[in-house]
């Protein structure tokens, strides 16, 4: 299993953006899943 690491205040900034844009988290999760699938092949 892999981990996504946020450094410094990037997590706080991401949380603020996610609250403003509800689709941001969904899109990020989708991209991470696609990247994981490509790497697994």
Q: Between the first and last Cα atoms, what is the distance in angstroms? A: 15 Å
Sheet with the most strands, sense and barrel status: none
| Overall SS class | mainly alpha
Radius of gyration: 12 Å
Q: What's the order of the H and E elements?
A: HH
How many DSSP helices?
2
Could you tell me the strand content as a percent range? under 5%
Overall description:
The protein contains 2 helices and no strands. The chain is mainly α and about 40 residues long. The two termini are about 15 Å apart. The chain has helices at about 10-20, 25-40. The protein is about 70% helix and about 0% strand. The protein is flat.
Brief overview, please?
The chain has 41 residues and is mostly helical. 71% of the residues lie in helices and 0% in strands.
Topology:
Blueprint: H1 10-20, H2 23-40
Keywords:
2 helices, 71% helix, 0% strand
């Amino acid at each position: 299993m892999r981990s996504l690491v946020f450094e410094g205040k990037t997590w706080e900034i991401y949380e603020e953006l996610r609250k403003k844009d509800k689709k941001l988290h969904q899109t990020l999760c989708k991209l991470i899943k696609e990247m994981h699938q490509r790497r697994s092949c």
